[in-house]
Protein backbone atom coordinates (compact mmCIF):
# COMPACT_ATOMS: atom_id res chain seq x y z
CA UNK A 1 0.00 0.00 0.00
CA UNK A 2 2.74 2.44 1.02
CA UNK A 3 6.37 1.99 0.11
CA UNK A 4 9.16 4.26 1.35
CA UNK A 5 12.64 3.72 -0.06
CA UNK A 6 15.93 5.07 1.28
CA UNK A 7 14.36 8.04 3.03
CA UNK A 8 16.67 10.69 4.48
CA UNK A 9 15.89 13.87 6.36
CA UNK A 10 18.83 15.99 7.46
CA UNK A 11 18.80 19.13 9.61
CA UNK A 12 22.09 21.01 9.09
CA UNK A 13 24.24 17.92 9.48
CA UNK A 14 21.96 16.08 11.92
CA UNK A 15 20.48 12.96 10.32
CA UNK A 16 16.99 12.73 11.83
CA UNK A 17 16.02 10.05 9.32
CA UNK A 18 18.89 8.15 7.77
CA UNK A 19 18.12 5.79 4.93
CA UNK A 20 14.85 4.28 6.14
CA UNK A 21 13.03 1.88 3.81
CA UNK A 22 9.79 0.18 4.77
CA UNK A 23 6.54 -1.10 3.33
CA UNK A 24 3.14 -0.72 4.98
CA UNK A 25 0.88 -3.63 3.92
CA UNK A 26 -2.69 -2.98 2.85
CA UNK A 27 -5.46 -3.48 5.40
CA UNK A 28 -3.12 -3.92 8.38
CA UNK A 29 -2.01 -1.84 11.34
CA UNK A 30 1.74 -1.38 11.23
CA UNK A 31 3.59 -0.04 14.26
CA UNK A 32 6.61 2.23 14.29
CA UNK A 33 8.38 2.31 17.62
CA UNK A 34 11.65 3.56 19.01
CA UNK A 35 13.13 5.70 21.76
CA UNK A 36 12.59 9.47 21.94
CA UNK A 37 14.57 11.22 19.21
CA UNK A 38 14.66 8.12 17.02
CA UNK A 39 13.17 10.09 14.10
CA UNK A 40 9.73 8.42 14.06
CA UNK A 41 7.65 11.61 13.95
CA UNK A 42 10.02 13.18 11.43
CA UNK A 43 9.62 10.08 9.26
CA UNK A 44 5.82 10.34 9.55
CA UNK A 45 5.93 14.03 8.60
CA UNK A 46 8.13 13.28 5.59
CA UNK A 47 5.85 10.41 4.60
CA UNK A 48 2.78 12.67 4.71
CA UNK A 49 4.63 15.44 2.86
CA UNK A 50 4.23 18.01 5.64
CA UNK A 51 8.05 18.07 5.80
CA UNK A 52 10.21 17.65 2.66
CA UNK A 53 12.55 14.67 2.47
CA UNK A 54 16.23 15.32 1.82
CA UNK A 55 16.32 12.13 -0.25
CA UNK A 56 14.16 9.10 -0.87
CA UNK A 57 11.10 7.95 -2.80
CA UNK A 58 7.50 7.25 -1.79
CA UNK A 59 5.03 5.10 -3.64
CA UNK A 60 1.42 5.17 -2.44
CA UNK A 61 -0.96 2.62 -3.90
CA UNK A 62 1.25 2.19 -6.96
CA UNK A 63 1.68 5.91 -7.54
CA UNK A 64 4.92 7.84 -7.02
CA UNK A 65 4.05 10.65 -4.61
CA UNK A 66 7.64 11.73 -3.85
CA UNK A 67 7.26 15.21 -5.32
CA UNK A 68 3.64 15.65 -4.33
CA UNK A 69 2.83 18.32 -1.71
CA UNK A 70 1.11 17.27 1.52
CA UNK A 71 -2.34 18.53 0.55
CA UNK A 72 -2.33 16.48 -2.65
CA UNK A 73 -1.16 13.35 -0.81
CA UNK A 74 -4.04 13.87 1.61
CA UNK A 75 -6.49 14.16 -1.28
CA UNK A 76 -5.19 10.82 -2.56
CA UNK A 77 -6.07 9.27 0.80
CA UNK A 78 -2.74 9.41 2.67
CA UNK A 79 -3.83 11.26 5.81
CA UNK A 80 -1.88 11.96 8.98
CA UNK A 81 -2.63 13.02 12.53
CA UNK A 82 -0.20 14.89 14.76
CA UNK A 83 1.80 14.12 17.89
CA UNK A 84 0.59 17.36 19.50
CA UNK A 85 -3.12 18.18 19.41
CA UNK A 86 -3.90 20.08 16.24
CA UNK A 87 -7.61 20.73 16.55
CA UNK A 88 -9.09 23.86 15.01
CA UNK A 89 -9.64 25.42 18.40
CA UNK A 90 -12.13 28.15 17.47
CA UNK A 91 -14.31 25.83 15.43
CA UNK A 92 -16.87 23.52 17.03
CA UNK A 93 -16.27 19.78 17.17
CA UNK A 94 -18.74 19.27 14.32
CA UNK A 95 -17.12 22.02 12.22
CA UNK A 96 -13.72 20.37 12.75
CA UNK A 97 -15.10 17.32 10.99
CA UNK A 98 -16.89 19.29 8.28
CA UNK A 99 -13.67 21.08 7.30
CA UNK A 100 -12.12 17.77 6.36
CA UNK A 101 -14.88 16.65 3.99
CA UNK A 102 -13.60 16.58 0.39
CA UNK A 103 -15.41 17.76 -2.74
CA UNK A 104 -17.74 20.29 -1.13
CA UNK A 105 -19.31 22.74 -3.60
CA UNK A 106 -19.14 25.58 -1.10
CA UNK A 107 -15.43 25.26 -0.55
CA UNK A 108 -14.31 27.60 -3.33
CA UNK A 109 -14.61 31.37 -3.51
CA UNK A 110 -17.06 31.11 -6.39
CA UNK A 111 -19.13 28.50 -4.55
CA UNK A 112 -19.21 30.72 -1.46
CA UNK A 113 -20.32 33.77 -3.46
CA UNK A 114 -23.06 31.78 -5.20
CA UNK A 115 -24.57 31.22 -1.77
CA UNK A 116 -26.29 28.41 0.16
CA UNK A 117 -28.56 27.59 -2.76
CA UNK A 118 -25.48 26.26 -4.51
CA UNK A 119 -23.88 24.28 -1.68
CA UNK A 120 -26.56 23.52 0.92
CA UNK A 121 -27.21 19.97 -0.34
CA UNK A 122 -23.52 19.12 0.07
CA UNK A 123 -23.55 20.68 3.52
CA UNK A 124 -26.51 18.53 4.58
CA UNK A 125 -24.84 15.40 3.26
CA UNK A 126 -21.58 15.96 5.15
CA UNK A 127 -23.31 17.09 8.36
CA UNK A 128 -25.14 13.74 8.28
CA UNK A 129 -21.88 11.91 7.68
CA UNK A 130 -20.09 13.81 10.47
CA UNK A 131 -22.93 13.16 12.91
CA UNK A 132 -22.81 9.44 12.21
CA UNK A 133 -19.09 9.51 12.94
CA UNK A 134 -19.61 11.50 16.15
CA UNK A 135 -22.18 8.95 17.26
CA UNK A 136 -19.84 6.06 16.49
CA UNK A 137 -17.10 7.70 18.58
CA UNK A 138 -19.48 8.64 21.39
CA UNK A 139 -19.08 12.39 20.97
CA UNK A 140 -22.50 13.49 19.71
CA UNK A 141 -23.19 15.48 22.87
CA UNK A 142 -20.10 17.63 22.23
CA UNK A 143 -20.75 18.57 18.60
CA UNK A 144 -21.51 22.23 19.29
CA UNK A 145 -18.70 22.79 21.80
CA UNK A 146 -15.50 24.50 20.75
CA UNK A 147 -12.82 21.93 19.94
CA UNK A 148 -10.29 23.97 21.91
CA UNK A 149 -12.28 23.29 25.09
CA UNK A 150 -12.09 19.49 24.77
CA UNK A 151 -9.91 17.21 26.91
CA UNK A 152 -6.71 15.70 25.55
CA UNK A 153 -8.42 12.39 24.79
CA UNK A 154 -11.36 14.06 23.08
CA UNK A 155 -8.96 16.08 20.94
CA UNK A 156 -7.31 12.81 19.84
CA UNK A 157 -10.71 11.45 18.88
CA UNK A 158 -11.51 14.63 16.95
CA UNK A 159 -8.26 14.22 15.00
CA UNK A 160 -9.06 10.62 14.14
CA UNK A 161 -12.67 11.44 13.16
CA UNK A 162 -11.46 14.40 11.12
CA UNK A 163 -9.04 12.17 9.25
CA UNK A 164 -11.81 9.63 8.65
CA UNK A 165 -14.02 12.33 7.07
CA UNK A 166 -11.53 12.34 4.19
CA UNK A 167 -12.22 8.66 3.52
CA UNK A 168 -8.51 7.85 3.84
CA UNK A 169 -6.95 4.77 2.33
CA UNK A 170 -3.96 4.95 4.66
CA UNK A 171 -3.96 6.63 8.06
CA UNK A 172 -0.72 7.81 9.63
CA UNK A 173 -1.27 8.11 13.39
CA UNK A 174 1.40 9.86 15.43
CA UNK A 175 1.14 8.72 19.06
CA UNK A 176 -2.68 8.52 19.23
CA UNK A 177 -2.57 7.43 22.89
CA UNK A 178 -0.17 10.16 24.02
CA UNK A 179 -1.47 12.19 26.98
CA UNK A 180 -4.78 10.36 26.94
CA UNK A 181 -6.65 9.04 30.00
CA UNK A 182 -6.26 5.21 30.17
CA UNK A 183 -10.02 4.70 29.77
CA UNK A 184 -10.09 6.87 26.61
CA UNK A 185 -6.95 5.12 25.34
CA UNK A 186 -8.78 1.81 25.62
CA UNK A 187 -11.68 3.33 23.69
CA UNK A 188 -9.31 4.56 20.97
CA UNK A 189 -7.81 1.08 20.81
CA UNK A 190 -11.30 -0.33 20.23
CA UNK A 191 -11.98 2.19 17.47
CA UNK A 192 -8.68 1.36 15.76
CA UNK A 193 -9.57 -2.34 15.89
CA UNK A 194 -12.87 -1.50 14.19
CA UNK A 195 -11.11 0.55 11.51
CA UNK A 196 -8.77 -2.35 10.73
CA UNK A 197 -11.76 -4.64 10.49
CA UNK A 198 -13.23 -2.17 7.98
CA UNK A 199 -10.08 -2.62 5.87
CA UNK A 200 -8.26 0.63 6.59
CA UNK A 201 -4.47 0.63 6.37
CA UNK A 202 -2.79 2.26 9.38
CA UNK A 203 0.80 3.17 10.22
CA UNK A 204 1.04 4.11 13.88
CA UNK A 205 3.83 5.63 15.93
CA UNK A 206 3.26 4.72 19.58
CA UNK A 207 5.22 4.55 22.82
CA UNK A 208 2.69 2.49 24.77
CA UNK A 209 3.99 -0.93 23.82
CA UNK A 210 1.06 -2.92 25.15
CA UNK A 211 -1.20 -1.08 22.67
CA UNK A 212 1.30 -1.79 19.90
CA UNK A 213 1.36 -5.44 20.91
CA UNK A 214 -2.44 -5.71 20.85
CA UNK A 215 -3.10 -3.61 17.75
CA UNK A 216 -0.24 -4.02 15.30
CA UNK A 217 0.17 -6.86 12.84
CA UNK A 218 3.82 -5.95 12.30
CA UNK A 219 6.19 -3.45 13.86
CA UNK A 220 9.24 -1.47 12.68
CA UNK A 221 11.82 -0.25 15.18
CA UNK A 222 13.81 2.96 14.66
CA UNK A 223 16.80 4.25 16.62
CA UNK A 224 19.03 7.23 15.80
CA UNK A 225 17.30 7.78 12.49
CA UNK A 226 17.79 4.23 11.23
CA UNK A 227 15.56 1.20 11.00
CA UNK A 228 17.04 -1.43 13.30
CA UNK A 229 14.45 -4.18 13.09
CA UNK A 230 11.02 -5.34 12.08
CA UNK A 231 8.59 -8.17 12.78
CA UNK A 232 5.90 -8.95 15.31
CA UNK A 233 6.32 -7.62 18.85
CA UNK A 234 6.94 -11.18 20.04
CA UNK A 235 9.75 -11.68 17.54
CA UNK A 236 11.25 -8.27 18.33
CA UNK A 237 11.41 -9.11 22.02
CA UNK A 238 13.67 -12.03 21.12
CA UNK A 239 16.23 -9.79 19.33
CA UNK A 240 18.81 -8.72 21.89
CA UNK A 241 20.03 -5.57 20.05
CA UNK A 242 16.47 -4.25 19.88
CA UNK A 243 15.82 -5.10 23.50
CA UNK A 244 19.04 -3.24 24.39
CA UNK A 245 18.19 -0.25 22.20
CA UNK A 246 14.61 0.22 23.21
CA UNK A 247 12.58 -2.51 24.81
CA UNK A 248 14.34 -2.71 28.19
CA UNK A 249 11.82 -1.79 30.82
CA UNK B 1 -23.32 70.06 12.35
CA UNK B 2 -23.18 71.26 8.76
CA UNK B 3 -23.79 69.08 5.72
CA UNK B 4 -20.13 69.03 4.71
CA UNK B 5 -19.04 67.78 8.12
CA UNK B 6 -21.79 65.13 8.21
CA UNK B 7 -21.00 63.99 4.67
CA UNK B 8 -17.31 63.88 5.51
CA UNK B 9 -18.02 61.76 8.58
CA UNK B 10 -20.37 59.36 6.79
CA UNK B 11 -18.15 58.88 3.75
CA UNK B 12 -15.07 58.30 5.90
CA UNK B 13 -17.13 55.87 7.98
CA UNK B 14 -18.16 54.03 4.80
CA UNK B 15 -14.59 53.86 3.52
CA UNK B 16 -13.32 52.66 6.90
CA UNK B 17 -16.09 50.06 7.13
CA UNK B 18 -15.17 48.72 3.69
CA UNK B 19 -11.47 48.67 4.61
CA UNK B 20 -12.12 46.96 7.95
CA UNK B 21 -14.31 44.30 6.36
CA UNK B 22 -11.52 43.59 3.86
CA UNK B 23 -8.89 43.45 6.59
CA UNK B 24 -11.15 41.22 8.66
CA UNK B 25 -11.41 38.78 5.75
CA UNK B 26 -7.63 38.68 5.51
CA UNK B 27 -6.58 38.94 9.16
CA UNK B 28 -9.61 37.95 11.21
CA UNK B 29 -10.83 35.07 9.07
CA UNK B 30 -7.76 33.89 7.16
CA UNK B 31 -4.96 34.77 9.58
CA UNK B 32 -2.96 36.89 7.09
CA UNK B 33 -1.30 39.70 9.03
CA UNK B 34 -1.36 42.18 6.15
CA UNK B 35 0.67 45.10 7.45
CA UNK B 36 0.75 46.43 3.88
CA UNK B 37 -3.02 46.82 3.71
CA UNK B 38 -2.88 50.58 3.19
CA UNK B 39 -0.74 50.07 0.05
CA UNK B 40 -3.67 48.33 -1.63
CA UNK B 41 -5.99 51.19 -0.71
CA UNK B 42 -3.41 53.59 -2.13
CA UNK B 43 -3.12 51.54 -5.33
CA UNK B 44 -6.87 51.82 -5.78
CA UNK B 45 -6.82 55.55 -5.11
CA UNK B 46 -3.95 56.30 -7.50
CA UNK B 47 -5.46 54.10 -10.20
CA UNK B 48 -8.90 55.69 -9.89
CA UNK B 49 -7.22 59.10 -9.99
CA UNK B 50 -5.16 58.54 -13.16
CA UNK B 51 -8.08 56.82 -14.86
CA UNK B 52 -10.40 59.75 -14.23
CA UNK B 53 -7.91 62.62 -14.68
CA UNK B 54 -6.98 64.07 -18.08
CA UNK B 55 -3.34 63.74 -19.23
CA UNK B 56 -0.88 65.90 -17.30
CA UNK B 57 -0.44 68.01 -20.43
CA UNK B 58 -4.01 69.33 -20.05
CA UNK B 59 -4.33 73.01 -19.24
CA UNK B 60 -5.29 72.85 -15.56
CA UNK B 61 -3.19 69.79 -14.80
CA UNK B 62 0.24 70.76 -16.12
CA UNK B 63 1.50 71.67 -12.62
CA UNK B 64 1.77 67.96 -11.80
CA UNK B 65 3.43 64.97 -13.43
CA UNK B 66 1.85 61.54 -13.66
CA UNK B 67 1.53 58.65 -16.08
CA UNK B 68 -1.74 57.91 -17.82
CA UNK B 69 -4.52 60.42 -17.51
CA UNK B 70 -7.28 58.54 -19.32
CA UNK B 71 -10.26 60.76 -18.59
CA UNK B 72 -12.55 57.74 -18.14
CA UNK B 73 -16.14 58.24 -16.99
CA UNK B 74 -17.56 56.95 -13.70
CA UNK B 75 -17.74 54.07 -12.66
CA UNK B 76 -14.71 52.86 -14.64
CA UNK B 77 -12.14 54.57 -12.34
CA UNK B 78 -13.68 52.84 -9.28
CA UNK B 79 -13.72 49.47 -11.03
CA UNK B 80 -10.13 50.14 -12.11
CA UNK B 81 -9.20 50.92 -8.50
CA UNK B 82 -10.55 47.57 -7.32
CA UNK B 83 -8.82 45.73 -10.17
CA UNK B 84 -5.53 47.51 -9.35
CA UNK B 85 -5.75 46.39 -5.71
CA UNK B 86 -6.38 42.81 -6.84
CA UNK B 87 -3.58 42.84 -9.41
CA UNK B 88 -1.09 44.30 -6.94
CA UNK B 89 -1.94 41.46 -4.54
CA UNK B 90 -0.72 38.87 -7.04
CA UNK B 91 3.03 39.64 -7.12
CA UNK B 92 3.18 40.66 -3.45
CA UNK B 93 1.26 37.56 -2.41
CA UNK B 94 3.40 35.25 -4.54
CA UNK B 95 6.57 36.60 -2.93
CA UNK B 96 5.33 36.85 0.66
CA UNK B 97 2.73 34.13 1.16
CA UNK B 98 4.36 31.12 -0.47
CA UNK B 99 7.46 30.37 1.53
CA UNK B 100 7.43 32.57 4.62
CA UNK B 101 6.05 31.68 8.03
CA UNK B 102 3.18 33.89 9.15
CA UNK B 103 5.27 36.09 11.50
CA UNK B 104 7.81 36.69 8.75
CA UNK B 105 4.96 37.39 6.34
CA UNK B 106 3.85 40.21 8.65
CA UNK B 107 7.36 41.69 8.74
CA UNK B 108 7.78 41.36 4.98
CA UNK B 109 4.45 43.12 4.39
CA UNK B 110 5.34 45.93 6.78
CA UNK B 111 8.61 46.44 4.92
CA UNK B 112 6.70 46.34 1.62
CA UNK B 113 4.46 49.12 2.88
CA UNK B 114 7.40 51.31 3.87
CA UNK B 115 9.25 50.66 0.60
CA UNK B 116 6.18 51.38 -1.54
CA UNK B 117 5.54 54.67 0.23
CA UNK B 118 9.20 55.71 0.01
CA UNK B 119 9.40 54.89 -3.69
CA UNK B 120 6.19 56.74 -4.63
CA UNK B 121 7.23 59.64 -2.40
CA UNK B 122 10.53 60.05 -4.21
CA UNK B 123 9.75 59.03 -7.79
CA UNK B 124 8.00 62.16 -9.00
CA UNK B 125 7.51 61.22 -12.70
CA UNK B 126 5.15 58.39 -11.82
CA UNK B 127 2.55 59.89 -9.50
CA UNK B 128 3.88 63.36 -8.76
CA UNK B 129 5.98 62.26 -5.78
CA UNK B 130 5.48 63.74 -2.33
CA UNK B 131 3.13 66.45 -3.60
CA UNK B 132 0.70 63.78 -4.79
CA UNK B 133 -2.17 64.17 -7.19
CA UNK B 134 -4.70 66.98 -7.05
CA UNK B 135 -7.85 68.04 -8.90
CA UNK B 136 -8.99 64.41 -9.24
CA UNK B 137 -12.36 64.56 -10.99
CA UNK B 138 -15.31 63.48 -8.85
CA UNK B 139 -17.86 60.90 -10.05
CA UNK B 140 -20.51 62.47 -12.29
CA UNK B 141 -19.30 65.97 -11.46
CA UNK B 142 -20.52 67.14 -14.87
CA UNK B 143 -24.07 66.08 -14.02
CA UNK B 144 -24.26 67.18 -10.36
CA UNK B 145 -22.44 70.18 -8.94
CA UNK B 146 -19.98 68.83 -6.31
CA UNK B 147 -20.36 72.03 -4.24
CA UNK B 148 -24.02 71.30 -3.48
CA UNK B 149 -25.68 69.33 -0.69
CA UNK B 150 -27.27 67.15 -3.39
CA UNK B 151 -23.84 65.97 -4.43
CA UNK B 152 -22.95 65.08 -0.82
CA UNK B 153 -26.12 63.00 -0.53
CA UNK B 154 -25.34 61.39 -3.88
CA UNK B 155 -21.83 60.49 -2.76
CA UNK B 156 -23.08 59.15 0.57
CA UNK B 157 -25.52 56.99 -1.40
CA UNK B 158 -22.76 55.68 -3.70
CA UNK B 159 -20.60 54.86 -0.68
CA UNK B 160 -23.51 53.11 1.03
CA UNK B 161 -24.13 50.97 -2.06
CA UNK B 162 -20.47 49.92 -2.03
CA UNK B 163 -20.65 49.15 1.71
CA UNK B 164 -23.72 47.01 1.03
CA UNK B 165 -22.04 45.13 -1.81
CA UNK B 166 -18.88 44.48 0.19
CA UNK B 167 -20.93 43.40 3.22
CA UNK B 168 -22.94 40.98 1.07
CA UNK B 169 -19.78 39.43 -0.42
CA UNK B 170 -18.03 39.18 2.94
CA UNK B 171 -21.08 37.61 4.61
CA UNK B 172 -21.32 35.00 1.86
CA UNK B 173 -17.63 34.16 2.29
CA UNK B 174 -17.61 34.04 6.10
CA UNK B 175 -20.80 31.99 6.41
CA UNK B 176 -19.85 29.44 3.77
CA UNK B 177 -17.85 26.20 3.92
CA UNK B 178 -15.08 28.22 2.23
CA UNK B 179 -15.05 30.58 5.21
CA UNK B 180 -14.93 27.60 7.56
CA UNK B 181 -11.87 26.27 5.72
CA UNK B 182 -10.22 29.69 5.97
CA UNK B 183 -10.81 29.73 9.75
CA UNK B 184 -9.40 26.22 10.03
CA UNK B 185 -6.29 27.30 8.14
CA UNK B 186 -5.98 30.32 10.43
CA UNK B 187 -6.15 28.11 13.56
CA UNK B 188 -3.86 25.26 12.39
CA UNK B 189 -2.31 25.69 8.96
CA UNK B 190 -0.32 22.45 9.03
CA UNK B 191 -3.33 20.39 10.12
CA UNK B 192 -5.44 21.97 7.37
CA UNK B 193 -2.73 21.06 4.85
CA UNK B 194 -2.78 17.48 6.11
CA UNK B 195 -6.53 17.44 5.41
CA UNK B 196 -6.04 18.28 1.75
CA UNK B 197 -6.32 22.07 1.91
CA UNK B 198 -3.86 24.16 -0.11
CA UNK B 199 -2.97 27.04 2.22
CA UNK B 200 -1.06 29.05 -0.40
CA UNK B 201 -4.03 28.99 -2.78
CA UNK B 202 -6.45 29.89 0.04
CA UNK B 203 -4.28 32.77 1.26
CA UNK B 204 -3.65 34.05 -2.26
CA UNK B 205 -7.40 34.04 -2.93
CA UNK B 206 -8.12 36.09 0.18
CA UNK B 207 -5.15 38.36 -0.44
CA UNK B 208 -6.53 39.19 -3.89
CA UNK B 209 -10.14 39.57 -2.67
CA UNK B 210 -8.99 41.82 0.20
CA UNK B 211 -6.74 43.76 -2.20
CA UNK B 212 -9.66 44.42 -4.54
CA UNK B 213 -11.89 45.65 -1.71
CA UNK B 214 -9.08 47.83 -0.33
CA UNK B 215 -8.57 49.26 -3.82
CA UNK B 216 -12.26 50.10 -4.04
CA UNK B 217 -12.09 51.89 -0.68
CA UNK B 218 -9.19 53.98 -1.99
CA UNK B 219 -11.10 54.84 -5.15
CA UNK B 220 -14.10 56.03 -3.12
CA UNK B 221 -11.85 58.11 -0.90
CA UNK B 222 -9.93 59.83 -3.68
CA UNK B 223 -13.17 60.58 -5.52
CA UNK B 224 -14.38 62.47 -2.48
CA UNK B 225 -11.14 64.13 -1.38
CA UNK B 226 -9.95 64.91 -4.96
CA UNK B 227 -6.35 64.71 -3.71
CA UNK B 228 -4.07 61.80 -2.87
CA UNK B 229 -0.46 61.89 -1.67
CA UNK B 230 2.02 59.54 0.06
CA UNK B 231 1.40 61.30 3.39
CA UNK B 232 -2.17 59.92 3.40
CA UNK B 233 -1.12 56.27 3.27
CA UNK B 234 1.76 55.90 5.68
CA UNK B 235 2.03 52.49 7.36
CA UNK B 236 0.51 53.64 10.70
CA UNK B 237 -2.82 53.94 8.87
CA UNK B 238 -2.78 50.14 8.64
CA UNK B 239 -2.24 49.91 12.40
CA UNK B 240 -5.40 51.94 12.98
CA UNK B 241 -7.37 49.50 10.84
CA UNK B 242 -5.86 46.55 12.72
CA UNK B 243 -6.88 48.24 15.97
CA UNK B 244 -10.42 48.55 14.62
CA UNK B 245 -10.64 44.86 13.68
CA UNK B 246 -9.16 43.74 17.03
CA UNK B 247 -11.46 46.00 19.03
CA UNK B 248 -14.54 45.15 16.95
CA UNK B 249 -13.96 41.40 16.99
CA UNK B 250 -11.70 39.36 14.74
CA UNK B 251 -13.47 37.03 12.35
CA UNK B 252 -16.84 38.76 12.66
CA UNK B 253 -18.01 41.11 9.88
CA UNK B 254 -20.28 43.01 12.22
CA UNK B 255 -17.33 43.34 14.60
CA UNK B 256 -15.30 44.86 11.76
CA UNK B 257 -18.06 47.42 11.17
CA UNK B 258 -18.28 48.25 14.88
CA UNK B 259 -14.50 48.52 15.04
CA UNK B 260 -14.49 50.91 12.08
CA UNK B 261 -17.08 53.10 13.80
CA UNK B 262 -15.29 52.96 17.17
CA UNK B 263 -11.65 53.43 16.21
CA UNK B 264 -10.96 55.28 12.93
CA UNK B 265 -14.22 57.22 13.04
CA UNK B 266 -15.21 57.58 16.71
CA UNK B 267 -11.81 57.63 18.33
CA UNK B 268 -10.22 59.97 15.81
CA UNK B 269 -13.23 62.28 15.80
CA UNK B 270 -13.23 62.57 19.59
CA UNK B 271 -9.53 63.34 19.72
CA UNK B 272 -9.94 65.77 16.82
CA UNK B 273 -12.50 67.67 18.89
CA UNK B 274 -10.05 67.72 21.80
CA UNK B 275 -7.59 69.66 19.63
CA UNK B 276 -10.00 72.59 19.88
CA UNK B 277 -9.50 72.64 23.67
CA UNK B 278 -5.89 73.80 23.14
CA UNK B 279 -4.42 71.49 25.78
CA UNK B 280 -0.61 71.43 25.88
CA UNK B 281 1.74 72.13 22.96
CA UNK B 282 0.38 72.04 19.38
CA UNK B 283 1.17 68.36 18.69
CA UNK B 284 0.15 67.10 22.11
CA UNK B 285 -3.34 65.86 21.22
CA UNK B 286 -2.35 64.11 17.92
CA UNK B 287 0.52 62.42 19.77
CA UNK B 288 -1.81 61.41 22.59
CA UNK B 289 -4.17 60.00 19.98
CA UNK B 290 -1.51 57.47 18.98
CA UNK B 291 -0.74 56.67 22.61
CA UNK B 292 -4.43 56.06 23.29
CA UNK B 293 -4.86 53.90 20.19
CA UNK B 294 -1.90 51.79 21.36
CA UNK B 295 -3.38 51.49 24.85
CA UNK B 296 -6.75 50.67 23.35
CA UNK B 297 -5.27 47.75 21.39
CA UNK B 298 -3.32 46.50 24.41
CA UNK B 299 -6.35 46.82 26.66
CA UNK B 300 -8.53 44.78 24.34
CA UNK B 301 -5.86 42.16 23.71
CA UNK B 302 -5.41 41.82 27.47
CA UNK B 303 -8.96 42.02 28.80
CA UNK B 304 -11.17 41.11 25.85
CA UNK B 305 -9.10 39.56 23.07
CA UNK B 306 -12.21 38.39 21.24
CA UNK B 307 -13.30 42.03 20.78
CA UNK B 308 -16.68 43.74 21.23
CA UNK B 309 -18.42 41.31 18.89
CA UNK B 310 -16.69 37.90 18.97
CA UNK B 311 -16.65 35.44 16.11
CA UNK B 312 -19.96 33.60 15.70
CA UNK B 313 -20.51 30.17 17.22
CA UNK B 314 -22.14 28.05 14.57
CA UNK B 315 -24.69 25.51 15.73
CA UNK B 316 -26.40 23.15 13.32
CA UNK B 317 -29.97 22.37 14.37
CA UNK B 318 -31.19 18.83 14.94
CA UNK B 319 -32.31 17.31 11.69
CA UNK B 320 -30.33 19.76 9.56
CA UNK B 321 -29.01 16.92 7.44
CA UNK B 322 -32.52 15.82 6.54
CA UNK B 323 -33.66 19.23 5.36
CA UNK B 324 -34.37 21.63 8.22
CA UNK B 325 -33.91 24.90 6.37
CA UNK B 326 -32.51 27.14 9.13
CA UNK B 327 -28.75 27.50 9.37
CA UNK B 328 -28.33 28.09 13.09
CA UNK B 329 -25.85 30.74 14.08
CA UNK B 330 -25.65 32.64 17.30
CA UNK B 331 -23.06 34.38 19.41
N-C termini distance of chain A = 33 Å
Given helix and strand content, the structural type of chain B is mainly alpha
| Overall strand count of chain B | 2
Largest interface: A-B, 50 and 36 residues
How much of the polypeptide of chain A forms β-strand, as a percent range? 15-25%
What would you report as the Rg of chain A, rounded to the nearest angstrom? 19 Å
Largest sheet of chain A, described in full?
6 strands, mixed
| Mean pLDDT figure of chain B | 91
Helix content range of chain A: 40-55%
| Shape summary of chain B | globular
Number of helices of chain A: 10
Shape estimate of chain A: globular
Count of discrete alpha- or pi-helical segments spanning 4 or more residues of chain B: 12
Oligomeric state of the chains present here: heterodimer
Helical amount of chain B? 55-70%
Strand content of chain B: under 5%
Strand order of the largest sheet of chain A: 6-7-8-3-9-10
On the 0 to 100 scale, the average pLDDT of chain A is 91
Note down, in words, how this protein is organized:
The complex is a heterodimer of chains A (249) and B (331). Chain A contains 10 helices and 10 strands. In chain A, the strands form 2 sheets. A 6-stranded mixed sheet of chain A has the order 6-7-8-3-9-10, with helices on both faces. A 4-stranded antiparallel sheet of chain A has the order 2-1-4-5, covered by helices on one side. The radius of gyration of chain A is 19 Å and the shape is globular. The two termini of chain A are 33 Å apart. Helix content of chain B is 65%, strand content 1%. In chain B, helix 3 packs antiparallel against helix 9 and helix 11 packs antiparallel against helix 12. The longest helix of chain B has 27 residues. At the A-B interface, helix 2, helix 3, helix 4 and helix 5 of A face helix 6, helix 7, helix 8, helix 9 and strand 1 of B.
Amino acid sequence: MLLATDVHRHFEGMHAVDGVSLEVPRGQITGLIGPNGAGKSTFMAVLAGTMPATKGTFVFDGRDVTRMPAYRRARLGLVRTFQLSSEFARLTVLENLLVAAPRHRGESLLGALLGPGYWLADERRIVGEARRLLKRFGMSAKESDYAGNMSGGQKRLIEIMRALMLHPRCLLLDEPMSGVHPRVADEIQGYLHDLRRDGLTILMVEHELHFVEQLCDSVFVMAQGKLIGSGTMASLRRQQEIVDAYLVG
Amino acid sequence: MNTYYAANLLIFAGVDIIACIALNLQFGVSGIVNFAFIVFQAAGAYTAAVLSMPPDTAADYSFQIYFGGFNLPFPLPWIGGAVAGALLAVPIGLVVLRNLRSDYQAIALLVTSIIANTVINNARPWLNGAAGLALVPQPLQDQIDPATDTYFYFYIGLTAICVGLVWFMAARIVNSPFGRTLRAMRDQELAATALGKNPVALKMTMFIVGGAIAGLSGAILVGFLTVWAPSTWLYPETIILFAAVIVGGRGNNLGAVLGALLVPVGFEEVTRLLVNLNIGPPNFIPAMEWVLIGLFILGFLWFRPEGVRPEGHKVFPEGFESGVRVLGEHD
